[in-house]
Amino acid sequence: MAEHSFPEVQGGGSLILAWQVRNKRILVVGGGEVAAGRILNVLNADAKVTVVSPRAGLNPEVAHRIERGQVTYHDRKFEPSDLDDADMVLTAVDDPEASSQIWRLCKERRIPANIADVPPECDFYFGSVHRDGPLQIMVSTNGNGPKLANIVRRQIAANLPENIGDAIKKVGMLRRKLRKVAPAIEEGPKRMQWMSKVCESWSLEDLVEMDEQDMERLLGFYKPGIVPSFEEIRLGDESGVWRFDGSFGWSVVC
Ligand SMILES: C[C@@]1(CC(=O)O)C2=NC(=C\c3[nH]c(c(CCC(=O)O)c3CC(=O)O)Cc3[nH]c(c(CC(=O)O)c3CCC(=O)O)/C=C3\N/C(=C\2)[C@@H](CCC(=O)O)[C@]3(C)CC(=O)O)/[C@H]1CCC(=O)O
Ligand SMILES: NC(=O)c1ccc[n+]([C@@H]2O[C@H](COP(=O)([O-])OP(=O)(O)OC[C@H]3O[C@@H](n4cnc5c(N)ncnc54)[C@H](O)[C@@H]3O)[C@@H](O)[C@H]2O)c1
């Protein structure tokens, strides 16, 4: 029997996920610079954010979010009842005792929490995030060097294709249309194979250029399992691809 080679387990890492917090209630305790960063992160993920922090200690960015009504605000120190309707808690206060009390209460109530500055009291760490439309890249050094996470993130971002976010947007549109054209669960493998071929064979520029009409035309080739090139799609009737004879493109086993 052939010897399999499976990945080695490398313990000591984090489970990096894309946590869906849309409309989840997130409590941020503290209104300083660190809180400002946390608030932006969770607003970018469409959470419902409540901030508890005395007005005197508010950072200008946090004050701006409050003024704009982007968050619900309580002008006072933390009280245990603040946890009553929280799905997640983020603390960023300059008071270690208050931090630890909040952590203990969160544990009792099984609410996931991030306590800034106290890694052993964090259920999850934040990371350094690059965002370009639907694309998000997070770098974590697992508590070893947050500043280095920032530096690595910027280096990665500088080396990305300029139009990657727009290309991903277009692929998202095409996938949603494809699921309308071929909604059956049994079609999953064929859908996935066809989408993979589109992503592999079209350049990012092609994907960015692709308009609604191109998408409709391209989707016309899903049934026979073919992926014409962008040029063939744009040329339309002149390209010959519209009179498909099975001699080009990729065939997908149905
Ligand atoms: C990535 C980022 C995300 C964010 O916060 O959103 C983030 N810290 C950032 C910046 C930053 N933080 C600190 C400095 C000063 C320089 C330095 O110390 O290096 C700088 C640099 C700066 O400010 O530019 C100080 C610091 N941070 C922590 C401690 C406690 C400790 O280590 O014990 C101390 C020491 C306090 C002290 O010594 O007193 C702990 C954590 N900070 C984390 C995340 C988690 C681990 C992430 C990872 O390892 O990858 C973790 C474990 C928990 C958490 O907070 O979730 C964000 C960069 C975002 C960006 O700019 O892109
Ligand atoms: N993890 C990280 O990435 C990171 C980076 C830098 C600093 N820190 C740490 O995070 C903490 C916050 O940093 P900062 O620069 O935002 O501090 P800051 O002093 O600017 O802000 C602290 C905020 O907490 C509020 N506050 C204090 N006690 C409170 C309570 N009981 N209830 C509600 N609000 C309360 C204050 O009013 C203020 O708005 C500090 O402990 C700092 O050392 C963490």
- The counted number of beta strands is 7
Low-confidence parts, pLDDT < 50 over ≥5 residues? 249-254
- How is the CATH topology of the largest domain named? Rossmann fold
User: How much of the sequence is in beta strands?
Assistant: 5-15%
Estimate the helix proportion, in percent: 25-40%
Small molecules bound: ligand PQ2, nicotinamide-adenine-dinucleotide
Strand order of the largest sheet: 3-2-1-4-5
Task: Give the N-terminus to C-terminus distance in angstroms.
Answer: 30 Å
Second CATH tier, the architecture of the largest domain = 3-Layer(aba) Sandwich
* CATH secondary-structure class of the largest domain: Alpha Beta
- Overall body shape: elongated
Which sheet architecture does the biggest sheet show? 5 strands, parallel
Distinct helical segment count: 9
Average pLDDT confidence is 93
Pairing-aware structural class of the strands and helices?
alpha/beta
Question: Order of SSEs, N→C?
Answer: EHEHEEHEEEHHHHHH
Rg, Cα atoms, Å = 24 Å
- Domain count: the total is 3
**CATH homologous superfamily of the largest domain?**
NAD(P)-binding Rossmann-like Domain
